[in-house]
Design a protein that fits this description.
By secondary structure, this protein is of the alpha/beta class. Helices cover 26% and strands 33% of the residues. The strands form two sheets. A nine-stranded mixed sheet has the order 2-1-3-4-13-12-11-8-9. It is globular, with a radius of gyration of 15 Å.
Length: 200
Amino acid sequence: MVAIIDYGMGNVASVQKAIRFLKIDCCITSDFSVIEGSTHIILPGVGAFYQGMKNLKERGLIELLSNEVLRKKKKFMGICLGMQLLAEKGFESCESDGLGWVKGEVVRLDPKSKIIPHMGWNNIEVRNDTFFKGIPNNDFYFIHSYHFVPESPDIIAATVNYELEYVASIQHDNIFATQFHPEKSQNSGLAVLKSFLTHA
């Protein structure tokens, strides 16, 4: 069963709808026992880094999720803000500590980029195809003003060119994350979700 973490930061229903379309059992939850009993954890999210961390802390989810993902090595996927919160620090509105599961920072898109926020469809360049094999095309839906800058380039699974090159996906051990929204990315997005949720 897939636990979609409900922490008040949006778009959980659309993620659930996409996974149910794949006929995979899932639920939206912040219940500790449900999360502990899950096989996979998905942390979606839309909004500000600081608020996302505040909401996780207020619900007592930080320690629980860290235990499930880092100690138990449960398969984890972060989407959009859910990817950014993996970083050590974020700088949206103020400097804020992140989950710190992946070394790196979340900073504003470079002003040289075309228009901020980066919103709409863009092709990604895949570097690690573990969860991108067999996708119909490389076009995915993005909406963000901040981006993840990992300390190590080795964890970058895909990049996107938006005047400059940005990280579109990361993969590290049992952790996988996307800056784009697979649940809004039609067949390619569904293929990525299915690949992650059914990968041995």
